[in-house]
C-alpha cells in the first residue's frame, strides 16, 4: 500500500497553490524553497511533504504542459 498524506499537508499545499499559483512549478527543489520562504514551518519533513504535494498538484492541474522552471516561464 502507498503512503497517505495527512489532511494538514493537503490543506497547506492547496492553500499555497491557490494564493500563489504562478510561483509554483513542477520542480520539487524550487517548490521546496518557496514553501520554506512563504511559511514558517520549522520541520524539514513537513516542508518536504508539502512541497512534494504542491509539485503533484501543479503537475495534475497543468498536465504535461506545466513549466518546469522559472526560465521556461520567461
User: How many structurally independent domains?
Assistant: 1
- CATH class type: Mainly Alpha
What percentage of amino acids are in beta strands? under 5%
Number of helices: 4
**What's the number of extended β-strand segments?**
0
Characteristic key phrases:
single chain, 74 residues, mainly alpha, Diphtheria Toxin Repressor, domain 2, 0% strand, globular
Q: Please, could you describe this protein's structure?
A:
The protein has 74 residues and is an all-alpha fold. The protein has one domain: Diphtheria Toxin Repressor, domain 2 (Orthogonal Bundle), CATH 1.10.60. It is globular. The model has no long low-confidence stretch (mean pLDDT 87).
What's the short story on this structure?
With 74 residues, the protein is an all-alpha fold. The chain has four helices and no strands.
Topology, please?
Blueprint: H1 7-19, H2 28-38, H3 44-62, H4 70-73
Helix pairs in contact: 1-3, 2-3
